[in-house]
Amino acid sequence: MANFDYSSPGAYFVTICVQNRVHLFGKIPDGDVRLNDAGHMVHDSWTAITNQFPSVRLDAFVIMPNHLHGLLWLTSPFTAEQDNVAQPALPDIMQWFKSWTTAQYRQGVVQHDWTPYPKKLWQRSYYDHIVRHDEALNAIRGYIEQNPARWHMDRYNPDSGESDPLVAQIWRLLQEDSG
Question: Is 163 helix (H, G, I), strand (E, B) or coil?
């Protein structure tokens, strides 16, 4: 959103996709995520965000074969143990995460024979939504939790043959939340 301060405390919903939506992080048989070693690395890297940025708190997230959805909270950086710590902006957090996971993945390709990625691990940008209301927050949490079970309808799944009505419902709610 133009002119929004993405270092403002609050909840943010992000989706990050693998370049060309290649399945690099695992599989989803029968609606359950089965992460491979690369997927576990992405999971561990996502949870490491709070070490890198102490004023960030993680909420619901899921690693899918070719993308991730996550909710994170930017909290006030000024606590007793964090005096004079600059508040990170969402783009800073996403840049660190993408750079860190790309380096870790590149190492996995060399050392553990992981599937090479096409030029870049991640797509250039990411989707974000500023969460303003509890209704939207709870709907996003539900969407994240249900995402693996709905993989057969996921727009990021190249084998998906149908559209997901929950996505349309969430999208409408997010549009209302933005206003």
Answer: coil
Say how far apart CA 15 and CA 4 lie, in whole Å: 19
DSSP SS3 for 61: strand
Would you say residue 27 has pLDDT above 90? yes
Instruction: Provide Rg for the chain, Cα atoms.
Output: 17
Q: What is the CATH number of domain 10-132?
A: 3.30.70.1290
pTM attached to this predicted model? 0.89
Cα 75 from Cα 58, distance rounded (Å): 11
The tokens of 58 are what? 């993680």
Q: Give the tens place of pLDDT for each residue, 51-110.
A: 999 999 999 999 999 999 999 999 976 554 555 567 899 999 999 999 999 999 999 999
Whole-angstrom distance, CA of residue 153 vs CA of residue 164? 5
- Please, which residues have CB within 8 angstroms of residue 135's CB and are 6 or more apart in sequence? 173, 177
C-alpha 60/C-alpha 144 separation (Å) is: 7
Evaluated on CA atoms 21, 26, 29, 34, the torsion sign reads negative
CB of 105 within 8 A of CB of 41?
yes
- CA gap 117, 41 in Å, rounded: 15
CA distance 34 to 25: 9
Extents of the domains making up the chain: 10-132
